[in-house]
Amino acid sequence: MWNTLQKLAQHPVLRFLKTLCGDPVQLYTIMLVTTAMEYYHSGMTWVYTIICIFLTFVLSKFYDFVAKHRFIGPLAYLGFLVLGLYAVSIFVDIGYQDYPIYFLVWFLTPQSVMDFSLWYTIAIFLLMTGFLSSAVYYFGKVRYRMVMQFLIMLIPLSLYAKEGLQMDALLVIILLASYFLLMIYCRQLRESPDVRRLNGLHSNLSVAVYVTIFSILAAVVPKPHINADREFIENAMGNSSLSDMLLEAISVFTDTTDNSVMFSSSGKTLYYLNATESLHLRSQTYSYYTEDDTWHKETAYDYPIGIHSEQASPPRMLLQGLLDAAKLDADFAAAHGLTNAAGTQLPEQRLQSFTLLSNIWYTTLLPSPVHTAAVKQVGSQPFSVTAQNVFALEEDELGYRVPVPMTYYSSDYAKFEAVSNILREFAPDDYSTMLADAAAILSETDAAAAEYLLQAREEYLDAQEYLALTQELDFQSDAVAALAQELTAPYDSDFEKACAIERYFSDAGFVYDLRYQKPEGDNVEEFLLTTHRGICYEFATAMVLLCRSAGLPARYVEGFSMSEQYDGVINNSQITHVVRARDAHGYPEVYIEGYGWLDFEPTVAANEQIQEQTAENYYVMLWGFVLLGLALLALLGYLLMPHLLEYRFRKNTAKLMPEQAAAAIFKRMRRICGLPESATVMELAAQPYGAPDVLFDRIDKLLYAQDSGAATEELMQAYVQWRQAKTAYEKEMRKKEKQK
């Protein structure tokens, strides 16, 4: 068995691979670079890995030269450093021309909010390869420091930790295995009679067995879940102050979004709030959806411009004004289907308040609900309400953790039974004319209500213009349009149509899956018709496009979901909710006739926390069981291989002529005993196994005297007796060894 493996190890291909990347120092470097490039360019990681294999091979030879030459070596390394930095600068310059944002900003900023840059990525690859190969070589072969090797491993891992991303489970296992291989091969063993040194194939297999067992145990053994506040660690690793400044600096470049922004699992705290209910906090909107599954900013809704100075009025005023006009004018009520509801007094819609404390060091925008009424000025820095109801500072920044009081009108008002019953029946033929007529009716009795209805008419016309623009530029899908028609055909009112679309995702068995990796090229069509699986991005995108296809103005909104409750006092302010980076959320807002803009929640409820806690362990354990299965197959092969080889030898030898059989048996016996090819039959017979002398006599005559008197069958029987005698002898020797 050992001889076979030794011969296999001498195969030219394996020898080439061992020469190319068999050095544990080089393997560890390759895995570190692979881990880093998986973060920056996951789709092409294997390309960077192959290039890194050849590059680290050349660099390892260069480092050997540097280590052996005391004076010229450092000079050569300095030249290599200058040349490497010059090459990196070339790629950085090309990258800046292609993507006008500074390389350092691109490097330090979370990649989920950056556009991909090939040239910057190549520069990162060269920097990582050069630095990591130098550091690993120095602390592996020049100064043995495994603690430093572990710290070096944290460099690429910190890229994932910064955004709370999960590494591929198989990549984690291989990286740790390469670290332990490095630790084994680079350690300094003391000379001792109690230490047995294994060389060659025995040593390699021993290490392979150890690393395999470690990898399987590390993966398969269940990991305990610890409920601990990791905010301090994550903020430290994320360097929150710097990250906030970088995100602010690149905001001008992020006019598109896709589902990657929703994959963060970071526990970094962004905001503290004191509120009486959970809210959707909107931070930005996107108007146009394209076939490549991305949203784009295009309209005034999407940019913090067009400052509004007036306070918002409650949506109740709109619907109540129409009902009051219907009470005053029966013809108006009959013309617009409000006869039964005329004069109904709707429940009061109270102005509610909440306080927001920013935990972001540098910010000029504050997220807020869709119907935010006003925000109180903090100190000498006034706020302005933007076109998208996000509050912006006139000055440069908001003080760190300064409480900002806001007032708003809750979207839950539309769910009140008295309100929703009317909205479900509200389906005028000409809503614009209806608003104008109602304003004329109320102009003599309630001038304020009449003015508000005219403002509502302008908002409606803007929404219709917005719908026309988005329908013209959106990704067109006959399948989405057909589904929208099917879902909304039974209903007349905007409110019922939007609610039917919202219900569809739960009724049709759609699944919220935080770990679902959407295949490249899939967009809203595949989500609606095939996969039925995704995150909030897919659900919100689908509802927006379905609503637009049904004739309802709708927009995609990104912000935060207030899902985590908190009970405490911060900066003398009572806190009820905390918003973390992982609470980033996408949802739709739909314009409803009779109410105005209203936010919906189509995302199917899922226990996101349980998924986050178990998904990583699940994939790690899955690969652990794969490794376990492969290890068991290897062990089974190791145990069965000698028997299979012996069976094949006997079967093939039985077909040979006596002279050929004698030669084959003699060669095999010599190999089993570990004797050289020059060994004679008599030397073989001298082995202390108690084999029958007739076997050696027959072999000697057949090989040297060409005696054909012995049959092949007799030779095989004698060979079998010899194997049995050898096995019995070795068993007896092991027994005596144990008795000592």
What is the CA–CA distance across the termini?
29 Å
Structural class: alpha+beta
Percent of residues in β-strands: 5-15%
Low-pLDDT residue spans: 188-192, 224-243, 245-253, 305-311, 393-399, 607-615
What composes the largest sheet? 6 strands, antiparallel
Coarse shape: elongated
Spatial strand sequence of the major β-sheet:
8-11-6-2-16-15
Q: Average the pLDDT over all residues and give the rounded result.
A: 79
Indicate the percent of residues in helices.
55-70%
Rg (CA only): 37 Å
How many strand segments?
Answer: 18
With helices defined by DSSP (H or I, 4 residues minimum), what is the helix count?
26
Observed structural traits:
alpha+beta, six-stranded antiparallel beta sheet, 56% helix
Reconstruct the topology from this structure.
Elements: H1 2-9, H2 12-21, H3 24-40, H4 45-68, H5 72-98, H6 103-108, H7 118-142, H8 146-163, H9 169-186, H10 200-220, H11 231-238, H12 240-250, E1 256-257, E2 269-274, E3 280-286, E4 288-290, E5 294-296, H13 316-328, H14 330-335, E6 352-358, E7 365-366, E8 372-375, E9 383-385, E10 391-393, E11 403-408, H15 417-425, H16 431-442, H17 447-473, H18 478-488, H19 494-507, E12 511-512, H20 524-531, E13 533-534, H21 536-549, E14 554-561, E15 564-570, E16 573-580, E17 584-592, E18 596-599, H22 608-653, H23 658-672, H24 681-685, H25 693-705, H26 712-739
Parallel strand pairs: 12-13
Antiparallel strand pairs: 1-5, 2-6, 2-16, 3-14, 4-5, 6-11, 7-10, 8-11, 9-10, 14-17, 15-16, 17-18
